[in-house]
Amino acid sequence: MKAFLEYVVKNLVDAPELVVVHEVQASGRSVYELEVHQDDVGKVVGKQGQTIAAIRTLVGAAASRGAQRIDVEILEGGRTRAHHSPSE
User: Fold this and answer.
1) DSSP state at residue 3
2) Measured in whole angstroms, how far is the alpha carbon of residue 8 from the centre of its chain?
């Protein structure tokens, strides 16, 4: 899942070499934290959040096969910028 998320995000941004995906296990779910260059945050979020919503839908659909609960967060400057759980 981490590799899939990394692949999708790296193909959206201008600085793919700066994309980092961290997987954190918390409360029975996997949390994927995305770090991207500050100039690329808007590209990942998209207009009115449509791009990140689509990414979360893809990850959620892939995770549903394994009955996993997954969250995707975008980190900017060491703090959470956006948070969503597709299974909620």
Assistant:
1) H
2) 9
